[in-house]
């Protein structure tokens, strides 16, 4: 029997959740992707036999093809977010400018303690604090 095809659209629909702890941007909270993540904190979705980055797949589904060599940028600065109204295309330069305009608040010592004691999986912790899974592991002392 042929394997059932799963499109990126199906994957996104099945594995997202509105995160009401996030600020409202463009009229909407973040829509967090709950599936698999890359080490740097971007979601992966299955698109038939290939894998796509979740936020790029969401952009393509809602806004159309991404021009060659362009990035999909987050208005909310949260890599786990796939809310189409938080996504726009931009260049590497735009991305760097965004980052400069919006420096990330450093984690406080109490955040770090909370992360160390948090028994959720690394992806879920990363979503709560908007950090990558690798950063979670570093804070927990699991990787250098
Ligand atoms: Zn968002």
TrEMBL record:
A Pfam family assignment: HNH_3
Domain (HNH nuclease): residue spans on this chain: 52-96
Location of the region described as Disordered in the Swiss-Prot/TrEMBL record: 89-112
GO function term, MF aspect, one: endonuclease activity
Record's protein name: HNH nuclease domain-containing protein
Native species: Acetobacter lovaniensis
């Amino acid at each position: 029997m042929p394997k059932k095809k799963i499109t990126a659209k199906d994957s996104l629909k099945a594995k997202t959740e509105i995160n009401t702890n996030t600020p409202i941007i463009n009229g909407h909270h973040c829509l967090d992707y709950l599936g698999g993540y890359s080490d740097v904190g971007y979601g992966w979705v299955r698109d038939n036999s290939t894998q796509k980055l979740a936020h790029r797949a969401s952009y393509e589904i809602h806004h159309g093809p991404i021009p060659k060599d362009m990035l999909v940028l987050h208005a909310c600065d949260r890599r786990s977010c796939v809310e189409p109204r938080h996504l726009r295309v931009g260049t590497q330069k735009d991305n760097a400018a965004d980052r400069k305009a919006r420096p990330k608040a450093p984690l406080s010592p109490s955040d770090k303690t909370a992360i160390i004691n948090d028994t959720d999986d690394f992806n879920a912790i990363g979503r709560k604090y908007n950090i990558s899974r690798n950063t979670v592991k570093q804070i927990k002392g699991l990787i250098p």
